Amino acid sequence: MDKPLKTPPPYLIQSVDHALRLAVILQLEGGLTVSEAAERLGVARSTAHRLLAMLVYRDFAVQDDRHLYRAGLVLELAAHSPSVVSRLREVSLPHLRHLADAVGESANLAVRTGDTVRFIASVECPQALRVGSREGMVFPAHRTTAGLLLLAELPGQELERLYAADRYADRPEERPDPDRLRAELGRVRRNGFALNKNRSERGVTALGVPVRDRAGVATAGLSVSMPSTRYDRTMLPSLVRALTHAAQAVQADLAGSG
To answer: 30's torsion region: left (phi>0), alpha (psi -120 to 50) or beta?
Structure first.
């Protein structure tokens, strides 16, 4: 039976309609520039830029290193069942629970999008004084354990493009010092883990290792976080062992579910 023709609502909100159309285009067609978005919608370039910025803010879109807008995590989760991100979350949760129980601290999994990371899974430890769930939260990549782990995997030129001064023209205070960042990422690569003390949040220390796909590419960062008052350097070897074991278990399950 034919479907009835759609009629627009009596009070059409044009900006909402434009944003929804852009979301559909991103989900079905892939990359889009600001100029292309403006042309498709028949609006000014400044209007298209504002619409895309709102989609990025709500995680319906992301901007890649070439300034192309693509489908974000929300659209990715909706378009693919299971998507890479949703499968990562599903597979990792049992291991995060086991890790939190084993080390007595909260455990997290995060993925990188551009210069930010988003926590896609989080399990709190049972201690009264603990780091709360970070699930769904977004932080600057260079300020987080998972972000440092994933940035350390990038080729030098890609890292330079990601943190180029022109991308931070309207927020220069948020741009990390390139030399210091390169040096820190070099240490992360050599160590195989990242330690973050009070960088993303005051009073919080986090330690993490990468989770890799079958090709050996780091796709996520697995970490434990704790109040800084509870962290001691002597804990480092045992925490790294526990994290490495958990990451390997996630990797094995991902390979088996693929």
So the answer is: left
CATH assignment, 14-79: 1.10.10.10
Which residues partner with 218 through β-bridges? 212
Task: Record the tokens describing residue 115, joined without a space.
Answer: 């210069």
Q: Which two tokens stand for residue 99?
A: 């890790």
Kindly report, residue by residue over 23-47, the tens digit of the pLDDT: 888 876 667 899 999 988 889 999 9
Report pLDDT digits (tens) over 41-68.
889 999 999 999 989 888 888 888 778 8
Place of tokens 């997290």: 108
89: confidence class by pLDDT, cuts 50, 70, 90: confident
Largest CA distance in the chain: 70
Q: How far is CA 253 from the centre of its chain?
A: 21
Q: Which three-class secondary structure string do you get for 74-104?
A: HHHHHHCCCCHHHHHHHHHHHHHHHHHHHHC
Domain 84-257, what fold?
Beta-Lactamase (3.30.450)
